[in-house]
Amino acid sequence: MNNRLRNLCLSFFVSFLLGGCDSIQAPSNKTPQANIQIVKGKVYYLERKLLPPGASLEITLEDVSKMDIASTKIASITQKISSTPPYTFNLEYDASLIKPNMRYNLRAKVILAEKLLMTSTEHLNPFKDPTNINIKLSSVGRSLPLNPVTKSVGKSVDNLSLIHVDSGLAVVSVNPLSKLSNTYWKLMTLNNEVVTMTKQQKREAFIQLNDELKSVKGFGSCNQFQGGFKLNGNTLNFTAISSTKMACLNSSNVETKFLNVLALTGYYSIHEHDLTLLNNAKKPIATFQAQYFN
Questions:
Q1: Domain that holds residue 67
Q2: What is the value of pTM for the model shown?
Q3: Strands 134-145 and 36-44: what pairing?
Q4: pLDDT tens figures, 38-81
Q5: Which of 84, 111, 139 is the last residue of a domain?
Q6: What is d(CA 280, CA 152) in angstroms, rounded to the nearest whole number?
Q7: Residue 65: exposed, middle, or buried by beta-carbon count in 10 A (0-12, 13-18, 19+)?
Q8: Vertex 248, ends 247 and 251: CA angle to 5°?
């Protein structure tokens, strides 16, 4: 009798434990599902021309909240161009990646054989008016490499001019990481010739634009200079440039060429941290590199 009672109690205890284990849920290994939304819009350009066969249209949604670093890509889509503009697109993105108080941009570009043919130049927030999204493209002249490499000082600078454009085509900036204004721009080349400091030179040649005052200041290699500037998109003109009149021993002709270049400037373009000035014929005449000081 005692054995039967003991076995009965043991059986009941084991059943209780097994039932309790079954009621404990295993931890979930599921990851949060993406909240997929779609941005719809059109891409167009005004030039009266047809794009070459094989060209592709790439649409990118990016986070541009931080101005001093490269934009963060959220989503992109690439589609073959087989008709005339406008080109419609449907871009899927994860809405959970969109945060309040952040800045977003919708960018478009046309590519052929890994060369950039056209790109959008204006900021477009797709969430401001999602029912009316129209992206305007502008030509960049001769085809640009998608990942141009800036050569360092002392090496060949044949490709240092970041954008070689033909007359009549738009000048644009490609992935600018530095601002035109309020940036210290060190002079790197003048008319494709590397600029180097002389032993007698006190400091490097540079320019710095003040957006609030619409003024420019700089150092030519011997004298300081100042003046104003007018800006409209990628059109840039320097006005009323004047300089001090110091006489420097063994001074090179860099300063004279530098001031002449400023007088001839009609356009500018920025790629990452490199600035190119172009004349009214849209030919590169000077290049600069952004410098940051702690």
A1: 36-139
A2: 0.48
A3: parallel
A4: 999 999 988 777 788 889 999 999 888 775 556 788 999 999 99
A5: 139
A6: 27
A7: middle
A8: 125
Would you give the end-to-end CA distance of the chain in angstroms? 89
Say if 48 falls within a structural domain: yes
Burial of 110 (0-12, 13-18, 19+ CB in 10 A): buried
Spatial neighbors of 281 by CB under 8 A, at least 6 apart, are: 167, 266
Contact 240, 192 (CB under 8 A): no
Q: Which two tokens stand for residue 19?
A: 């039932």
Residues 189 and 286 in one domain: yes
Q: Given 3-state DSSP classes, what are the helix, strand and coil percentages for the chain, each rounded to the nearest 5?
A: 10, 40, 45
Sequence-distant contacts of 69-74: CB under 8 A, at least 24 apart: 69/177, 70/175, 70/177, 71/105, 71/175, 74/98, 74/104
Amino acid identity of residue 172, one-letter, is V
Provide the 3-class DSSP secondary structure of residue 107.
strand
